[in-house]
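debug: dumping io for the single-chain case to check the tokenizer round-trip. Nothing else runs in this session.
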Amino acid sequence: MLELFLQPESLIILATLFALEVVLGVDNVVFISVLCERLPVYQRKLARNLGIALAVFARIGLVFSISWVMSLTAPLFTVMNSAFTGRDLIMILGGAFLLAKSLKELWMWLTQDESHTASTVRAGIALVLLQIVAVDAVFSMDSVITAVGMTDEVPLMIAAILASAVVMVLCAEKINDCVTRYPGFKTLALLFLVLLGGLLMAEGFAIHVNKGYVYFAMAFGLIMEGCHILLKRKRKTLINRLYPQQAGWAIKTHAVR
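debug: decoded output
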């Protein structure tokens, strides 16, 4: 077992699988962060960690079900000269669910005020975890099929999944804080999930789109939002310097309220 991980070819494959799993993990963490906002504050961290753990177990389960996963690539039926496989159906249905869920969350985020949102009925933790596992299974399908095409060594696949899980746990709280604290980041996160849902459906209909373009666009949006936050802080600091009395009065007024 140890000799497997010491071979140069195995290390290259492991690094590639790890990179794929990290990208998948970021998608999952964003979706988990959005879903966990529907829970009470004291349950969010627990739900986030449980969601990541269940996602990891689901991926490992798919790895051990390689024969079943690969059978999903066999054509099931044909519509207008287009063959559909089990994988295609999972991509279409999973993408439709992610797209509908993301659009619903985006609509509520943009149209409802905070008082109305706070009064809405919160989702149960079991329902949130179920949605996390379902979407993660859809996300994982392509990565597992890709991994099988790269290697038939199950230990390498599991090692990459576990290593990416550590990264997910370390980054989850920071990503969740950004999504919660800054409205722009939450809007970008929801738009990112909308794009992913559309891409999954497109993949199911054999319309192949390079996901690199989507990740580049979202990275550009994150950089713009980061610049916007820095400019707001700079403007606030400048106002405090020019009008220190007004700044102090504003602080006192906020404290009285």
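debug: round-trip ok. The longest strand covers residues 75-79.
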